[in-house]
Amino acid sequence: MDYNQIFRERTKNFSILIIKSLATLPYSDDVSIIRKQIIRSATSVAANYRAVSRARSEKEKFAKICIVVEEIDETQLWLEIIQELGYLSNEKILHLKAECEELVKVMTKYKFRLSQL
Question: Which residues fall within 8 angstroms of residue 104, CB to CB, at 6 or more apart?
Answer without folding.
Answer: 69, 72, 73, 76
